[in-house]
Amino acid sequence: MTFCKEVRNECNxxxxxxxxxxxxxxxxxxTLPLDVFKYYVMQxxxxxxxxAKVQAIGAVKAxxxxxxxxxxxxxxQTCAAEMALHESFMELLNVKExxxxxxxxxxxxYSYVSHMYRSAEGxxxxxxxxxxPCYWLYYEIGERLKEATPKHPIYQKWxxxxxxxxxxxxxNEQIIRMDHLAENLPEKRRQELKDRFRxxxxxxxxxxxxxxxxxxxxxxxxxxxxx
Length: 227
What we know:
single chain, mainly alpha, about 0% strand
């Protein structure tokens, strides 16, 4: 069994939790409140800004020119295609400059980005094991939802993007590359890469959750119990 098949199977619990999350179901059914989706889009724009930078770090970590070229291309595609998608969402959601002026990343988004940069201290395999769940999970969601017919055009566009042939090609390219990087590695090293993949899979689930709850940095301090 290839590395990616192994780690995908081992993380199936987290991925199924993402597929079943009410945020994802709300997109499928077209019932997700737009203020929740607006919160998600703004957090995702923050995340993707750093995702593109980590892809660029992958280009630097590559040991051959072709891989450098491909990671640079992926980074450019994130900046161009993904951000263009979000720009259209910003317009549909009526996101204003004042919204950005008061924006701050959620605890989950901040933590996920920190996780990516920490992983990027390693080699190219560390980088790819960390960012691959974002590619792959979104593609699987796009595939699962591509027959869905939510009435709102913003949800139709989101599904169409991640279920597209263009996105599928990018995902498959990175899966093949991950398998190549992990091939013949000692079991201990393979487990390290699996751990990075699983942590990112957890953060992917938590990204839906933080949007669903519109997570903030506030802390609810309960009153002291009477002695």
